[in-house]
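Posted in: Structural Biology > Protein-Ligand Complexes

Title: Requesting predicted complex, LCNOYBR7 in pocket

I'd be grateful if someone could produce the 3D structure tokens for the following input. Sequence and ligand are given below.
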Amino acid sequence: MTIVLGCIADDFTGATDLAGLLTRSGVPVSLRIGVPDAPPQPDACAPFEVIALKSRTAPVEQAVAECRAALAWLRQGGAARFFWKYCSTFDSTAQGNIGPVAEALMADLGTDQTIYCPAFPENGRSIYMGNLFVGEQPLHESPMKDHPLTPMRDSNLMRLLTPQVTRPVGLANRQAVAGGALSARLADLAGQGVAHVIVDAVAQTDLDAIAAACYHMQLLTGGSAVAMPLPELYRTAGLLDATAEATAPPVIGPGLIALSGSCSAMTRAQVAAYAKDAAAYRLDPLVLAGEGPGAARDWLAQQVPEAPKILYATAEPEEVRRAQAQLGVARAGEVVEAALAQLALDARDQGVRRFVVAGGETSGAVTSALGVSRLEIGAEIAPGVPWTYCQSDGQDIALALKSGNFGAEDFFATALRKLDAP
Ligand SMILES: Nc1ncnc2c1ncn2[C@@H]1O[C@H](COP(=O)(O)OP(=O)(O)OP(=O)(O)O)[C@@H](O)[C@H]1O
Ligand SMILES: O=C(O)[C@@H](O)C(=O)CO
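-- Reply #1 --
Done. Output follows.
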């Protein structure tokens, strides 16, 4: 099948978030882990293809190269429209790659304008006058200010994006979006040479209006929610006639585990809630850096595969800062990711088949260690978090990859319950 929309996501939880929201419309969606080595086979492609990268904190050159390779693969599969998915909290490092990737994709596609819309109202992310809010807080006052890898200290998307790009940045504000004037505003900005347009959105109706005005653009960028209306728009425009076949999910063995490397505020509450009833082991980056994950692996080896358990490095901001001060930001993250990846492998070899993983970077490390290349999208657990199915070492497994701030406080228990009763 020809690819109708080719999507590139900068982390794994973001990729499952996007794939899950697109799946709501009943279109076939395929999620690949990394750019496939083999060229796309038309009979093995879905109209919506999502390629998951682990490029959010990668240096600009590396992120650009990976995203251009993903674009080339998707174009080979027939895609003419593309979506660059980054975080709904616009997570990027000081040398952020959101803008450079967008500019590189625009250059490859020969297009002069794109939009930036990370808003996700269902999960409390909104944009007003170019400023991003998390719930009622501006981004820079929200818990995202303490993120271990991408602390967000400014809420203004124009100020965040401008240093990342070479061409002018502009704003299409809520008045233009809600007043039906977005297309005119984009044309006006294009006339002024504005290549990068931040678009306000505070409600799903705004996102519907944005998608309707922009679905024809070669490149759209944003969070998952602005992509959600695209399948229906493509259907109406005659670009898409496929509907996903209803297939029964594979039967998944009962062994289960939760692994958390996210230090986001919601994950901290979720870990605390789950640890009340599950066996829990806390990973300390300083111990991991000195002694490796041996003690955690021994602990895991003592656990019953079918019993609820969680291994987590999730910690309060002061503890994260303490580990980073001793190890450096990158090494602190790496030892945790490497340990959780090893523990996932151990768990699989012990017979665990149900994995709930919190954190995008963490999910990237775990999924890669499990040797997964493609995910089937299953039932949604919470907005932006579906169950997914894949094979690891020839075994059917289920993975729920949870973005740091998504899901309610009882997420881990809810996820595992919903696997059997969606
Ligand atoms: N105690 C800790 N000290 C220092 N770094 C930590 C600690 N615990 C986890 N980390 C690192 O913090 C990073 C958290 O990023 P991750 O993407 O996994 O979570 P998240 O940002 O909350 O999730 P998402 O991107 O999906 O919203 C990882 O690199 C992880 O290894
Ligand atoms: O957009 C979001 O918030 C998530 O899909 C994500 O990217 C978290 O890493």
